[in-house]
């Protein structure tokens, strides 16, 4: 696995939040829509599967993979699609989506309707770890996805998911601890947590929560032959959190350039 190639691809995608690549009038585009607990992210790739545009919005419309605000989710997806179409000068026609492992058929259909409501035909419904692994290419190891609400694990053996688990404890819990520690609101803590220059001070405050995440990983991988841990999900953006996970699990940890964008990129790759 060449991590530098993966990191370069993710950095290009990150830059596509601000800039837009050129696309031909008839060029095939690959689109991925990630409906998460904290963010909705849409990624567009060109015919060579290079990132050309990316848009995202904070939206609490999904909980534990289930749509809790259908109208809100539809509104955000429509808005992001319109923004991307305007930026690219092209209409978007197809998209892949992803859901947490174990999501029932009915709930998958709800996700699908939200995206179809924005005019995109859904060509694939993936599970999130499989989407992340389209980028990472893990044969044997565990992908740990730490999002807003949960720490999810997917163990891969010979490139296939053989075990999944998902437990409460995610970025929301970090923000609650920061809010208590600084006597500020949850919303202020969310903003503060993402400020790179403050993350050295924040890490000691939230270390016990990250240790709890590491203990979740340990419990699920014990008695299994796991050679490495691969971190994805927004919470893994926190500077040096991977060091805490590495120390507490005793396993080598790989954290991509921007763990937040791995799953959205993987969804688009599967369109
Ligand atoms: P879940 O996986 O629980 O369904 P989700 O898919 O919405 O949620 P992500 O979008 O991967 O989760 O991550 C959202 C979390 O990541 C939020 O708690 C957010 O505060 C946190 N987060 C995003 N960016 C950063 C950052 N730069 N530093 C620290 N935390 C961040």
From TrEMBL:
InterPro entries: ATPase_NBD, EutJ, FtsA/MreB, PilM, SHS2_FtsA. GO terms for biological process: cell division. Residues 30-136 form the SHS2 domain. Signal peptide: none annotated. It comes from the Bacteria. SMART domains: FtsA (SM00842). Pfam families: PilM_2 (PF11104). Coiled coil: none annotated. NCBIfam families: EutJ, PRK15080.1. This is Putative chaperonin, ethanolamine utilization protein. It comes from Maridesulfovibrio hydrothermalis AM13 = DSM 14728.
């Amino acid at each position: 696995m060449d991590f530098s190639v993966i990191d370069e691809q993710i950095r290009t995608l990150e830059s596509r939040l601000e800039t837009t690549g050129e696309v031909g009038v008839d060029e095939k585009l690959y689109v991925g829509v990630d409906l998460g607990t904290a963010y909705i992210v849409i990624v567009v790739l060109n015919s060579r599967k290079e990132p050309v545009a990316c848009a995202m919005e904070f939206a609490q419309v999904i909980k534990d993979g289930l749509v809790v605000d259908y109208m809100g989710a539809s509104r955000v997806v429509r808005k992001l699609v319109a923004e991307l179409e305007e930026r690219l000068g092209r209409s978007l026609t197809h998209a892949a989506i992803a859901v947490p492992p174990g999501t029932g058929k009915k709930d998958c259909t709800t996700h699908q309707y939200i995206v179809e409501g924005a005019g995109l035909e859904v060509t694939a419904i993936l599970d999130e770890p499989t989407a992340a692994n389209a980028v990472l290419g893990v044969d044997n190891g565990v992908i740990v996805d730490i999002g807003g609400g949960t720490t999810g694990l997917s163990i891969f053996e010979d490139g296939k998911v053989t075990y999944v688990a998902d437990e409460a404890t995610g970025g929301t819990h970090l923000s609650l601890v920061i809010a208590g520690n600084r006597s500020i609101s949850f919303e202020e803590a969310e903003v503060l947590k993402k400020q790179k220059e403050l993350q050295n001070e924040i890490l000691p405050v939230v270390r016990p929560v990250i240790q709890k995440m590491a203990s979740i990983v340990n419990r699920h991988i014990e008695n299994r032959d796991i050679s490495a841990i691969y971190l994805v999900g927004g919470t893994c953006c926190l500077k040096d959190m991977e060091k805490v996970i590495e120390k507490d699990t005793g396993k080598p940890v790989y954290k991509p350039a921007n763990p937040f964008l791995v799953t959205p990129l993987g969804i688009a790759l599967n369109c």
